[in-house]
User: Fold this.
Amino acid sequence: MCGIVGYIGKREAYPIILEGLKRLEYRGYDSAGIALYDDSEIKLSKTKGKVADLEAKAATEISTNGTLGIGHTRWATHGIPNDINSHPHYSNSGNLVIIHNGIIENYESLKKELLKRGYTFKSDTDTEVLINLIEDVKINENVKLGKAVQIALNQVVGAYAIAVFDKKKPNEIVVAKLGSPLAIGIGDEEYFIASDASPFLEYTKKAIYLEDEEMAVISRKKGIKIRKIKNDALVDPYIQELQINLEQIEKGGYEHFMLKEIHEQPNAIKDTYRGRLRAKEGIIKMSGIDDNLERILNANRIIVVACGTSWHAGLVSEYIFENLARIPVEVEYASEFRYRNPVITEKDVVIAISQSGETADTLAAIKLAKSKGAFVFGVCNVVGSTISRETHAGAYTHAGPEIGVASTKAFTTQITVLTLIALKLAKEKGTISNSQFHMQLQELELIPDKVKKALKYDEHIKMVASIYKDAKNCLYLGRGYNFPVALEGALKLKEISYIHAEGYPAAEMKHGPIALIDEQMPVFVIATKKGHYEKVVSNIQEIKSRSGKIIGIVTEGDQDVKYIADHVIEIPETLESLTPLLTTIPLQLLSYHIAVMLGRNVDQPRNLAKSVTVE
Ligand code: M6R
Assistant:
């Protein structure tokens, strides 16, 4: 978590860093800070709150000149979010300054040592320990900043993406990475540093993504030198040409990124299957699967590891893989899987799902599975992300940048990729008839238009949202393929509106949650025509007889639920296995409108961050 930005070159650093921090605020927004080098001095300003608060404070506190600087937007780990714990942090001499994304796990023992040597600390952060460790090495071993960073990092346990500079050597910035992402944009005699490429897209499309355990000395005069932190070996930089553009990360006329991303789903789903799905010819081409077909087909089982919304997409895939391809599937929270000594063999295929490709628990689960000999396949959105590089093979979702903290298009595109994989395996295994296969392919091609249609009910959904916006608790029910959608609907409401919500399999209700139902309780029930319809209608009757308020997500033209429910929201008809791609749309919109009506910060809900790079 946390976003880091840096600049060294010919331009004024301040506007580049400030704008970059705004783009990285999705990574954390507890506090923000900036340090610029100007006129032999470090000009530092930092504050609790958002980048907008920093902007206001910096304008009155420091001169914003200078062509070298670093900035930080924080998701707090060590120390509460306040001005003092905000980054950047000085070393004791005031010569060195650092920004850091990650956690130094052994910071307490390092701090004890430094205290013994006379160092003092203003903040509660692990980062202030690190900068003083670097300073201590630099002074005692009489080495340059780059070497001091390297020696210090070899004593550190944990994760980091850091940027450091020395006011006595204002022509270079030293950066290093382990576990947290760090990209370096290469301009014309100028360099940009950032947690992802978004802060420098309008300046350059050339970027180097540092690998774990690499560091770089970026010098105004001498360019970039990359080394391995452990053995000092020089690394040949691999410069990538970036494919994303600025429009993709801007709001494009929508009030919030979340709303924009909800509306992008028809195109995002199309982009996901583009070039892979050839419905007319009955072909699915996915190089990550094609190149490893034998290994995957011979798997004893598939284990899905993921967190949050990606875990919900994994749960949907359990139904898809088991029903279509007849492969046993287990879906695991990555955070549980990594610590419970799971039984994994070389015959297992692990599918890791992650929008960001940076989630720490998912990454750790991947490493564990690989160490036991499993074949690991990644489903990621962010191209070049750590998870996409750590897995043996994979498929990108191609959803485009997702900035809103609440995941929307990542979910539907993950399901699309997983559906393509399941259909391909089903075809290869012969567990699906030709006619079923063709029907699935054709119907999948129609999904983008059906999502568009589902989005057209927005005004009606907004009206429903206005009725239930003041609820204190909500239940979400679904069965089969739509049970995970109920979980996802509840998560969406919780995270952006702060209303307590629970998702349940509809039939589980009578084993406990039914006790919660009274006239105050809105119950969102997914009751599509295909998928245990009659059973779900009976569940609805049970809620009705206990005076619960029922909002049914139903297939267009449905009459039965309409008759019983307080409100219904329609979605177009599709195959049962594809319904999650449609039923999720009204639930996303409902959460969005409720959150807006309650005045919540939809794109940056409290306490959250977009990518969780700490465990
Ligand atoms: O980037 P990932 O898909 O690995 O992220 C996993 C979760 O942190 C993420 O889905 C989170 O639950 C979202 N805020 C949900 O909207």
Residues 307-310, 354-356, 359, 362, 405-407, 491, 495, 608, 611-612 surround 5-amino-5-deoxy-1-O-phosphono-D-mannitol (CB under 6 Å).
